[in-house]
Amino acid sequence: MSKKRLSIAVLGCGPLSNTLAQHIKADPALALSCTTPTPQQLTASAVCVIYLPDAAASLPEASEQIQALLAEGKNVVTPLPASALGKAAILSACKKGNTTFHGTGGFQNALPVRFNRAFAAITRDISDIALVEERPASREYAQNALCRSLYQDSLHTLSDAVFGDRQDNLSPDLSPLALEPNANPPRIGSISNAEPHTVIRRSLGNHVSYDSLWSDPDPDNNTLRYSLHTRSADAIGHATVTLEGDGEQDLLCHLESRQLLAALAITIYSAPGILHHELDINAVKADDRLQI
Q1: C-alpha span between 3 and 28 (Å, rounded)
Q2: Integer angstrom CA distances of residue 7 from 43, 44, 182
Q3: What is the arithmetic mean of pLDDT over 196-205?
Q4: d(Cα 62, Cα 76) in Å, to the nearest integer?
Q5: Confidence band (pLDDT; 50, 70, 90) for 208?
Q6: Which domains are assigned to the chain?
Q7: Which H or E run contains 1?
Q8: What angle do CA 129, 130, 135 make, to 5 degrees?
Q9: What span, in angstroms and rounded, lies between the C-alpha atoms of 80 and 205?
Q10: H helices of 121-250, where?
Q11: Its domain of life (predicted)?
Q12: What is the tens place of the pLDDT at every residue in 217-229?
């Protein structure tokens, strides 16, 4: 007897949405319900929605859309952590719809961050964290709106993973809505000697920063390099990991889509509530603070 395929909807557009659709179609355990940029066009058959934040929308707008999906009975997997969306409101929507929300389901830097945190050997009492990404430029990702969404998700996920409930004690402006471009984020580490074509700098408050350095397009270069710099009261840690692709696909897009897909099954089969990835270990766990 064949196992019933899980019906998945992708809410979003762009290269990541297209990549997800391709992977879902190729997976014998999954069925693509629909791919749409608007919630109104979602099909009723979907048991889980992969929510890709609309970069033009604000965090409150994203939270409202996700709450509506959860309350209507749709499980949701998204790159955005619950801390950026309002945990109490998300949990309330989960209870209403008897559904599960997986925040940080598609953090594209999850794998290198896990490696780097382990190698840096500073996993407690971190006061500052800086992630530096070096990558070849991509036409598809060279869109201001998409970049804004990508780095917004990453900053909030890093902040939630490192600081958790300590966020309020670190800085008055380290809050879910404090995301602003910063020409001079705090530097606690160095970058490579590469000559970047484009530099995107983002920070969240005074303690979390994410720099992305894009080199000129090179058809023979499909390499991602991540450097993680952490600081505590006692030490400073630096670690770097390099990922190489086959040149056929955007590695960053591939990493994020794989993270999202890996979160689907546990989200669908878990009890109602909130799940999240712990970035220092390669596992998914229930958020004990928000258990029903």
Answers
A1: 9
A2: 10, 10, 41
A3: 73
A4: 12
A5: confident
A6: 6-106+255-290 (3.40.50.720), 110-248 (3.30.360)
A7: none
A8: 150
A9: 17
A10: 144-163, 167-170
A11: Bacteria
A12: 666 667 888 888 8
